[in-house]
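User: As part of a screening pipeline, I want to sanity-check one entry by hand. Below is the sequence and the SMILES for adenosine-5'-triphosphate. Please return the complex as structure tokens so I can compare it with the automated output.
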Amino acid sequence: MSTITLQLKLKLFIYLGIAIFLLNIPVIYFEITKLNERLLNLELAEDLYNTILEVRRYEKNFLLYHDRDSVASNRYYYEQASELFSKASAQFQKSSLQSDIVQLGKTLLAYGEFEKFYKKSSPLTVNEDIEAKLRTAGKNVVDAADMLLIMQRRRVARAAQNALWWPLIFMGAMLLLFLIGAKIIISDVVQPFGLIEKAMGKVARGDFSPIPYGRKDEQQASHMVVSFNRMVQELESREEQVIHSRKIASLGTLVSGCAHELNNPINNIVLTSDVLNSKRKMTPERQAQLMDDILKQALRASEIVKNLLEFSRAQTSVHKEFDLAVLLRETLRIAENHIKLSHVTLHDEIDANLPRITGNHQGLQQVFLNLTTNAVHAMQDGGNLTIRAQRENSSKIKVQVEDTGTGIAKDILPHIFDPFFTTKDVGKGTGLGLSVSYGIIKKHGGQISVKSSAGQGTTFTIILPVREKRNST
Amino acid sequence: MEKTTVCILDDEPIVGDRLKPELEDDGYGVEVFTDSASALKRLDETCFDIFITDLKMEGVDGMGFLEKVKDKCPGSEVIVITGYGTLESAREALIKGAYDFITKPFRIGEIRAAVKKAKKKARRNSA
Ligand SMILES: Nc1ncnc2c1ncn2[C@@H]1O[C@H](COP(=O)(O)OP(=O)(O)OP(=O)(O)O)[C@@H](O)[C@H]1O
Ligand SMILES: [Mg+2]
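Assistant: Here is the complex for your manual check:
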């Protein structure tokens, strides 16, 4: 069973939010209408109460003065009250105040009974018994009306409270929804994105380590991290392949240079052997010198072969500590033939006291070989090639490869580090030299940059970090 | 009859050192140089009958030296030796007037034979 995807989750949240919002409107409308209605009814209850008070006022007057006017007013207001009551009872019929209104109706009816006494008695007197009963009935009516009023006031207060509370409850629900949504977005999207962002920075620097990500859920963002890691792995193995194919290409340059270089000691050995084989007489010293020459030239040849072997055999990603100055000189020795054959004069400005660095020996050798090869290619009619290496500051070494060749046109300058970008003829350049060099330098935490003006020459600058070791002196 | 003179130019000192006594045994007057600058200086003073020059050198290389020799001493013959013989460089050397083109490694006998033939040619030139 698959769990809910992030997209679905967020959709759900949005729909829920809209539903809550939409529900909010009728509920609030309903509450306010109710409040309004109850306020109107309260007015009615108040009118009724006040009218009943009037009824009782004239009742009291009558009992004091026994006059006809009071009776007439009493009856008038009683009629009024009865009218109001029938209105009210229609209004309150279905409300929770039904029992109260029924009670009020009963008391009003009981009070109405006393009408006949007013009519009959002449002069306008009532006996004490009836008077007491009248008072009680009047009091009951007032109490019932008062109760109705109080109850209605409470209902108004409750309706007002509800009208206030509902929006608050809805707002609270929305807020809660929003918070949960935000939390999901943060943990499922923002955090993985943050990780990916960081990792991308590392990839740009040539560091292909995967993202450490513990979650194994089905979230899309997690999928993204997983596929990102897969991509990074793929990239890394691709890079190894590209470096490898570069190595084979460089090997071609190297082999032809070496073949030339190798022929010199072999020629020396052949010539010396010929001399030793000839019947010519020579001193034992001369003979010893010739033998020694053969040995020396044989060693020289084996040294050249060793260089070649070292380059072809060395593993691409083994890191070790070494002296950059030595590496540069070795590289120049490998490229020497190529340089000389192109009438290029080499200027060695390598500071011999460079701090040792840790890195990929073979990789860096390839970088400098690529740069010098490019420089020599750019100087078909000769020129000056300067290799400069010095300490930039306590934590950096700066190496520059400067040529006085064709230079690079402004419009192609941004592309020279692109893989397979080449201006050379098919078969002459693969266009991988600089892109591979770029990758290797980035992997060392370094930088490679280029300055060039067409027709004047080109300078490649490489900055490599040094891990400072405490120097006791 | 005057001795035939031979100039050997190769930045590998052993080449001159081994060839000189052998060619002297054959009756040539031999001078050895290991850099083109000093060889050119000597060229200003005298024309050798035969030049043997390596192609790959710092400064003026064998091809340049060949041109200078052909310029200054049209009657002299030049034998070009090289460690990295390509068809192009051989053709270029021959077009520029080299008498022979020998790739390293070579035997002393090859050089002696080449010098012997070049000597005849040089003689004819001056005759
Ligand atoms: N020193 C330089 N002077 C002039 N142009 C250069 C220099 N270095 C590089 N370039 C330009 O940059 C392009 C890319 O160089 P890059 O080394 O990546 O490939 P390439 O030399 O063409 O082929 P290869 O893969 O054999 O090295 C070259 O084709 C060339 O146009
Ligand atoms: Mg290149």
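Points to compare against the pipeline: Residues A 249, 370, 374-375, 378, 403, 405-408, 416, 421-424, 429-435, 458 surround adenosine-5'-triphosphate (ligand 1) (CB under 6 Å). The CA atoms of residues 42 and 56 of chain B lie 20 Å apart.
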